[in-house]
Amino acid sequence: MTDAVAEAPSLFEQALQSYQEGAPLPEVIDSFLTITQQEPRLSAGWTCLAWLQLLDNQPQAALRSARNAVKLNPQDPQARINLSLAMLETNAKGVREHIEWVQRVRVMAPELAEELDGSIADGLARRPDWDALQKVQAWLKG
Fold first, then answer.
1. How far is CA 49 from CA 86, 98, 101, 110, 142, in A?
2. Strands in 7-68 per DSSP E
3. Using an 8 Å Cβ cutoff, are 38 and 29 in contact?
4. DSSP state of 10
5. Which element (helix H / strand E) includes 98?
6. 3-state SS, residue 101
7. 5 pLDDT band (50/70/90 cuts)?
8. Angle, vertex CA 116, rays to CA 110 and CA 122, nearest 5
9. How far separated are the first and last CA of the chain, in Å rounded?
10. Which of 6, 45, 114, 117 has its CA 20 to 30 A from that of 108?
11. Cα within 13 Å of Cα(58), Cβ side
């Protein structure tokens, strides 16, 4: 019995899988809200929540979530991209420093660059008219 419990996917893994399978955004957002309430120091939970809120056109909520993610893990390039996007969409100042940081990481860690490119492609596939993401993509490639 304990083996089955140990092998059960975590709420985080379940929520991530739901997102990857195309579950409705409000449903996945609710899962990540629960995750961040249960584990408020889990930066990945805040990073995912911010991304989902951005996809769902909730820039103010995404800005709060992304700030939490970056505060908990300033070394996470996806968290900084999410923060940059939320800042662009809310007209907040300070985007450039985050973009420049991510550009440096991309040069030093090509495997992370590939992961980030995949994330950007996913965002544009799910929200093709996402101007802020198109801007960030151009900046990162430029």
1. 12, 19, 21, 25, 28
2. none
3. no
4. P
5. helix 95-108
6. helix
7. very low
8. 140
9. 54
10. 45
11. 14
pLDDT tens column, 57-115:
999 999 999 999 999 999 999 999 999 999 999 999 999 999 999 999 999 999 999 99
Which residue, 32, 34, 59, 57, is CA-closest to 47?
32
Q: How far apart (Å, rounded) are the C-alpha atoms in residues 128 and 142?
A: 20
What is the rounded CA–CA span in Å between residue 107 and residue 35?
Answer: 32
| Of 2-16, 44-58, 69-83, 119-133, the least confident | 2-16
| CA 118 to the chain's CA centroid | 12
Q: What span, in angstroms and rounded, lies between the C-alpha atoms of 90 and 81?
A: 14
pTM value?
0.92
pLDDT tens digit sequence for 22-38: 999 999 999 999 999 99
Could you tell me the CA-to-CA distances from 126 to 3, 22, 70, 122 in Å, in that order? 37, 9, 24, 6
- How many Å apart are CA 127 and CA 1, to the nearest integer? 43
Q: What is the pLDDT of residue 8?
A: 65
